[in-house]
Amino acid sequence: DLVSCVGWTTADELYSCSDDHQIMKWNLLTSETTQVVKLPDDIYPIDLHWFPRSVGGKKQSHAESFVLTSSDGKFHLISKLGRVEKSVEAHCGAVLAGRWNYEGTALVTVGEDGQVKIWSKSGMLRSTLAQQGTPVYSVAWGPDSEKVLYTSGRQLIIKPLQPNAKVLQWKAHDGLILKTDWNSVNDLILSAGEDCKYKVWDSYGRLLYSSQPHEYPITSVSWAVDGELFAVGSFHTLRLCDKTGWSYALEKPNTGSIFSIAWSIDGTQLAGACGNGHVIFAHVVEQHWEWKNFEITLIKRRTMEVHNVLNDAVDLLEFRDRVIKASLNYGHLVVSTSLQCYVFSTKNWNTPLIFDLKEGTVSLILQAERHFLLVDGGGLYLYSYEGRLISSPKFPGMRTDILNAQTVSLSNDTLAVKDKADEKVIYIFEALTGKPLGDGKPLTHKTEIVEIALDQRGLTSERKIAFIDKNRDLYITSVKRFGKEQKIVKIGTMVQTLAWNDTSNILCGIQDTRLSVWYYPNTVYVDKDLLPKTLYEKDASEFSKNPQIVHFVGNQVTIRRADGSLIHLNISPYPAILHEYVSGSKWEDAVRLCRFVKDQTMWACLAAMAVANKDMATAEIAYASTGEIDKVQYINSIKDLPSKESRMAHILLFSGNTQEAETLLLQAGLVYQAIQVNINLYNWDRALELAVKHKTHVDTVLAYRQKFLEDFGKKETNKRFLQYAEGVSIPQN
User: Fold this and answer.
1) Homologous superfamily of the 3-283 domain (CATH)
2) Which end of the chain is more exposed for a tag (fewer CB within 10 A), N or C?
3) pLDDT of residue 56
4) 514-551: buried (b, 16+ CB within 10 Å) or exposed (e) per residue?
5) CA 468 – CA 437 distance, rounded (Å)
């Protein structure tokens, strides 16, 4: 009889339930199949969901019990050995779906009677979340277990558990919706309908992808745990898709309709419950990694093929266990299998470094030039390429199972992690110690953050982080914070995706319909007016909607379009060379390069770099070439200043850092200059405050103030100035 539902206990063991009332157990290592239990004849199983493995920070190696919903209106809590611990009357008519939340503290069931009910772990009714006139065919928990997504005819509804909270509802398909799934890592929603389409939505109900109509209704959709892939099942059809919707592979197995798809815990294989009584198993192979002249393909579950396109050399890499995750970057290939981690150097494929893993199921690998990060269900682990554990950063309420490449970023000295509990917060750690950076306070933004990225080069003290928030605005800020509030500066709007270059601090992003490259993002801290001049923009309408930047290596940007095709774009190599010269303080070479290239963006970058490094002679040449005469004059006036301190202070003023300039002058004892700076900026109150505090030049401040008021024909209204004016007579000149 038809198989209605499947569920994995470990990465190699699957349970399936069928209309013949049997629960079967499949062991993939030994290829054995055994009957766990035969249910009573009046129970026809519909849906099965294993109790989550990680509860309260403790991680079991395998699931212990599952919930089974059935056509008689009950759900059954059943142990791994097949003992029915409890049966609960839940709905009138069949219970069509049951799902545990991520913490295992609550169970949601939906039924033919149109009700959505929430139950406790032990099967006590907590609340009836919704009631409607049509059957609810599918249900899924939101990533934070605080919302529930369910179907209502052709509508999808997201309802928070809190009473009176706003309910989101939208028409999703032209036919009945049969299945839905919501991923906790990427926060995206899948839906499948009788209109023969599957669709991808964000959690606000915006459509990101809609498939072409298939021949038959789509009967199942399911996310892989890490949210990178999903599977789609229909009549004689199994499809593997990327999270953005395009299809990697289409199989036409002889299965009847596939009613339920379950991914294994490590995301390497899936099982489908088929209408003709079969259980179908599928393994994901042929993943592809590229870096410079190497392309690597996983050709079998335990074998990779390395192809060097320069000399057509081919190497085969064999592994003891199946490959779960891999990453290729910075001259190293890092591969995690179910028990071990392998580190290969691209110079030598024969002698990998191998070490054992604690948890086994690595969900993310990130690389920087000097080290790499492994993320698994238990924590974050930073390793050197020699296989030494460097650090293991932690923060309160850390949930590592929902981190992905958009929410974690690694550079040679810093690790940044976006918090899930409070999406406005980024935790920043020192890579070598795993301790929070600076004063230990995380970085906080005013709205929720979507994607973060650290720059890769340069000095630790100048490390920058770029991030996109919910409104798709791009911000940049410095990572190091010594007590003083660092400015978070907005440098772009409507930014879809971003990436830092691997060899110099150049940032690229796609904003609206343009590819933008910020050749020197640090400009915002040096001379804000220059930023637009350091920007390279190119029309990006050829990338269609929702393109993603995959890599930015050397001077090549790789972009994946919404249909899955890759586009390679080359940007000018000169800005990277300029970065290199400046980091080596080769100012003459930098000027020579700009004269050779004759490009305004290059001069603008050089001007900002020179001011940032306090090289005013080069700055003068660069500003003159960009035609900013007022700045050239100001730089000239700085050169003539008598003392080093006042020169430094005026360079700070040039970049708009008035506070630091004033502090510097006061420390050097140049009180009059500090007062004069405030007078020039019309900071009258501060000028008077300094004069009174240091008991000097009060009359000067008052004289300037009076002259200012006379020029504008105004009367003095400021109480403090009136008070001091009485006590001080100002010589008329």
Assistant:
1) YVTN repeat-like/Quinoprotein amine dehydrogenase (2.130.10.10)
2) C
3) 45
4) bbbbbbbbbbbbbbeebbebbbbeeebeebeeebbbbb
5) 21
